[in-house]
Design a protein that fits this description.
Blueprint (H helix, E strand, L loop, with lengths): L1 E6 L1 H14 L2 E4 L3 E2 L6 E7 L11
Antiparallel strand pairs: 1-4, 2-4, 3-4
């Protein structure tokens, strides 16, 4: 699943940390600036459920 988060840098960091406690995160895109001041966008890709096999974070 792909999750998009828009907000200030502090809001994005807080949201990513909260989501990491619930879902395994496979990758996080680079933080992209939007045209609004002090607003950023990031995409998270959730990884499949951990079944004992390893996957790269």
């Amino acid at each position: 699943m792909r999750i998009r988060i828009d907000g200030t840098y502090a809001e994005i960091v807080h949201s990513v940390n909260k989501i990491r406690t619930i879902l395994p995160i496979g990758s996080v895109s680079p933080v992209l600036p939007l045209q609004r001041p002090h607003t950023w966008r990031v995409f998270l890709d959730t990884a499949p459920k951990r079944t004992g096999s390893r996957w790269i974070t």
